[in-house]
Amino acid sequence: MRTIISLLFFLHTFLALPAFAYEVSTSARVVAFADVHGAYDDWVALLQEVGVVDEELNWSGGNTHLVSVGDLVDRGPGSRAVVELMMKLDGQAEAAGGAVHMTLGNHEVMVMTGDLRYVSAEEFAAFADDESEQEREHFYQQYRQYNSGGDDATVRATFATQYPAGFSALRKAYSLQGTLGAWLIEQPFVIKVNDKVYTHGGIAADLAGKTLDEINAQMQGDLRDFMLNMQSLHQVGLMPWHVSYHDRLDFLNARVEEFVADNPGKRAPWFEQVQAVFEAQQAFVFSGDSPNWYRGTAMCHPLSESFNTERFLKRAGAKQLVVGHTPTRGEVQSRMDGLAIRLDTGMLKSVYKGQASALISNDGADYVHYLGGAQRAVPRPEAMNLSEKLSAMSDPELEEFMRTAPVTRVETIGTGITNPKRVTQERDGIVNDAIFKYEDTHPGLQEQARYNTRRFNESDRYQYDVAAYKLDRMLDWQMVPTAVIAEVEGREGALSDWVENAINERDREAGDIPFGGYCKQWEQYRLRFVFDVLIHNDDRNLTNILWTRDDFMMKFIDHSLAFRSTEKRPRQYRKIDLEVSDLLFRRLQGLNSDNLTEQLSAYLHPRQIEAILARRDLILKEAVRSGEH
Fold this sequence. Notes:
With 629 residues, the chain is an alpha/beta fold. It is built from 24 helices and 22 strands. The chain has 2 domains: 310 residues, 4-Layer Sandwich (Purple Acid Phosphatase, chain A, domain 2); 240 residues.
C-alpha cells in the first residue's frame, strides 16, 4: 500500500510540474517574508506598504514575486485568514504576471498532521461556524466511545474544554480533502528565486549535497504518505479526530491489540497503514535535520556551519540562503558574511515582541522594509561576542577589569598538574570569575635571540593562553575566553574568563549526559581540529573540551602546552580531514607576519609566529573545501 502511494505521489509530482519547477529566474521585484504566525493585521499592513496588496486585499503587485518561508499559522488569531488570503493572492498574482511562492514551515506540517499544541483558542474559533450541531455531536460520540467513564455532563464539559468548537472543522480544513490542506500539500519546502534559496529552517549537512528537486520530492512524499495513511485510518473509523498527534501510536497499538485478541490468526485490512504510521516516526519530514526544523543555519557557529551552507548553495547555483523559524530580536540579520539571512523578526508581537518585515530584492540593492518604516534598511550583520555572553562586557572592558579589579577570593580548583586557581574579582557591584594560571617553565622565551627547538618545544607557559585568545579574536572565532596577563597575590600569570555553567567532555561521558543543543558535536569539532593544528595544540583532551550546558556549544580552554615550532600537524590530528569553508579559508588567509607579530610578539617567539603561518599554509593546502564533496 505504501509503495503504491509513494509511486502515485512520484507520478503526480513529476507529471504535474514542469522541469526546474523549484527554480525561478525573474527580473521582477522579489518580496520575501517569514513566520506570520497568524499576525494577520500586521502582515496585511506590511503587504500593503510594499505594494503587493491594495485596500480591498487584492493583488496589486503586478509582476512581483512574493515569497513566504513558512509558518503562516499557529499561535496567532488570524491563521486561517492568512492562509486563505495567500491562496487568493496565488491565483491573482499569476493572472497579473507575478507569482506567490510558499515554502512549508514546521507549523504548517504540524497542523496538517494533527499536532495542534500551538493552535490558539482564536484559531479554533475561526472554524466554529463550519461545524453543524450534528457534526459536533458525532464528534462527541466518537470521543465518548473511547472515554466511557464518568457521567455524561462531566464528560461533555471535559470534551468542550479539550476540543473547543471548531476543532474538528480545523482538522478537516487542513486535511488532504480540506481547502487549506489541499493547497498546502502542493507547496514545496525549498525554492530558488534568482540567486537566493528560500526555506523555513535551514540546511543541515545531510541535505547539503542534494538538489532542490530531491529535497522537495523526499519531504513532500513523506508528508503526503503520512497524511494519506492517517486519512485512510480515519475513514475506517480507526483514527478519530480527537486523538492527538502525540497519542496516535499508543492509540493505534491498542486498536491492533484489540483486533488480534478478537480475531486470532487474522490480519487486519488496515494493518499496512498502521505500520506505515509507525514507520513515519523515522520520516525525514519530522526530523530535526529537515529544512523545516533545522536551526543550525541560524544558531550554530558560522565558521563551521558555513561549510554546509556553502556546499548546498554551490550545488544549487545560488549565493544566499534565506530562512525563518528562529526569531531574531526584531531585526533581519545576516550571518556568515551574508551567506545566510535570518528573516524571522517575530511578526506576532504578542508572543515574540518583534515586528513585521520583508526582504526585497531586484529593486536596486537588497533591502529590508519594516512595517511603518520610512527608510530602506539593510540586514544587520550578526555580532558574535563571547565576552558579552560570558560576562556582559566587551573584550576591552573585560581585559581592563581583570587587570585592575580587586581580587576578593582565590580558591584552588583541584584539577590540572599546575594547580590553577579560580579567582573572583569585584568592583562597583560587578563580580566576575576567572581561572588563574601561573606556570612558566621558560621565562622570557619570547625574547630569546635564538629559539632552542629541543628545550622550548617542551615549554608550559601561561602566556600561551593569552596568545590563543588573541589569535582567536584575530580570526573572529569567539571560542577562547578573554585572557590577560595579570597579578594575583603578588604573582604574575594569565587570567582567563571563567566559563560558567559548563561541563567538560570527560564529565559528560562519565555522567552519561546526552549531548543536547542544536549544533552537532562532530560539526563543532571541525573548528577544534583546525584551531589545534593552527596553534599546534597536542594537549587537547576530554578535560579541556568544554561545553556550555544551556546550548552545548564548544569553548576552547587550556593552551599552555601549545605553540610549538613544528610545521606539521599535532600527532592526534595527522589523519583527520580538515573541513574548511570558504569563509574560514578567507579568515585564515588574512593572517600574516605583520598582524601576528603585532598581536602575539609579547607572548611568542618569532619562530613560533613563523610556525603559525607555516601550519596555516598547510591547512589551506590540505583542507577539504565545501565545493569538493
